[in-house]
Amino acid sequence: MKKSLFFALALVSLSFTPINDTISKKERDFAVKLLKDTENDVLTNVKGLSDNQLKYKPAPDRWSVEECLKHIAVTEMALWHMTDSILHQAPNPDKRTGIKNTDEQLVQMIENRTQKVKTMDPFKPENTPYTSADDALTSFKTNRAKLVAYVKTTQDDLRNHVTTMPFGPTDGYQLILFIAGHTNRHAQQIEEVKNDPGFPKN
């Protein structure tokens, strides 16, 4: 009886143990750290800013801190929706051969602000649903918390779901890194606004 109970419990335990860890612990830890670090960069950069400072534009064709926040928040949501959609399609590992960037190279490419990229209309601050910096920050923090929780626990086959971005084929895991790298890109932009000579003192 005791032996039967032991085997029954063992089978139950195995049924709740993931058979395959589709991304390694190193990959999972790297993505989680990058997501948390880039979120912290944004929050630290905007902490304590007045409404006057949030709305300051270094030039008519440059974004304010508030506009950067709106862009970060709407892009965060859109990129995750795209990633989630790809993961619900059939895996296509044959397309992995087209991936040229390593994970580190992809992050560096996205973070590099010497390469200017024109934002598509849906991601321009004036076209977002956010009415204020606080509104955008709330959305950003909520969605980032969900994404971090997902990365910590997911067993989705992130590597074998591949889509084509403007810069080339990219897998699901790299799309998550793209989200974090994009956040860092605009955290740098916020720092540039704050370092502008005309940035208000308060």
Sheet with the most strands: spatial strand order? 1-2
- Return the CATH architecture: Up-down Bundle
What fold name stands as the CATH topology?
A: Four Helix Bundle (Hemerythrin (Met), subunit A)
Report the count of strand segments: 2
Query: What global shape is seen?
Result: elongated
The class by helix and strand makeup works out as: mainly alpha
What is the CATH superfamily? dinb family like domain
Which percent band covers the strand fraction? under 5%
Number of domains: 1
Share of helix, binned: 55-70%
Largest sheet descriptor: 2 strands, antiparallel
Helix-strand string = HHHHHHEEH
**What is the CATH domain class?**
Mainly Alpha
Figure out the total of helices: 7
Q: Would you identify the regions where 5 or more consecutive residues have pLDDT less than 50?
A: 1-20
Describe the structure.
By secondary structure, the chain is mostly helical. It has a single domain (21-194), classed as Up-down Bundle (Four Helix Bundle (Hemerythrin (Met), subunit A)), CATH 1.20.120.450. The chain has helices at residues 2-15, 25-46, 51-54, 65-87, 103-111, 133-153, 172-194; strands spanning 162-165, 168-171. It has a two-stranded antiparallel ribbon. Helix 5 runs parallel beside helix 7. The longest helix has 23 residues, at 65-87. It is elongated and about 55 Å long. It starts with a helix and ends in an 8-residue tail after the last helix.
